[in-house]
Fold this sequence. Notes:
Blueprint: H1 4-11, E1 15-22, H2 27-36, E2 42-45, E3 49-50, E4 54-57, E5 60-66, E6 68-75, H3 81-90, E7 98-102, H4 103-118, H5 134-144, H6 147-153
Antiparallel strand pairs: 1-6, 1-7, 2-6, 3-6, 4-5
Amino acid sequence: MKSFKEYLTEAAKTFDYRIKILGDTDAKFMNGLEDKLKQFDVISMSNPKRTPVQKTLPDFPEHQNDSMTIIDVKFNYPATPPQIIQIAELLGHDPNKIKMVASGWEASEDYERAGYEAQPASVLADTDYPEPNAEQKDASEYYGADPLERQVINNEYASDFTIAGGNTPPAEFNTDKPAGTDSPIMGTNKIPSPVAG
């Protein structure tokens, strides 16, 4: 049977991150960053690795022809990207030139990017479609027409049924009656005639 200490050791969770810094980094900044990251109880921190200069970096698409410094860190306590960016800003670094991602996320991005790059070109991109047959042309004309024209003008959905009980007589409106001399105001039977002054 395992002791409580063994269970506690197995249940301990670590937080793995990758910090990416665009451009050159000096020793003063790196020492300050290492010192500030101690608040997350650093388990391990890799030496900074610098990438070669690339035309475009996926993590910093707005910058071109630059390199990137990568640091892998493992903490006992979680950290968030805004915290790391704020630490870099306090050390005098441009906050737009530093990013932090979880290591699992970074691996999934690399895997997905490799999958996109390995895909062959689309088969349909350079292929001409066959000529439409008569049925396809008829369908194209039918469905390409205005729906209102199909339903109302061509009377496509005409109903040929009779209503039980006969047809309803048409409604009567005031405009159907001849105009009279009665006033529309109740109690007076004459339309007043204005007197010119």
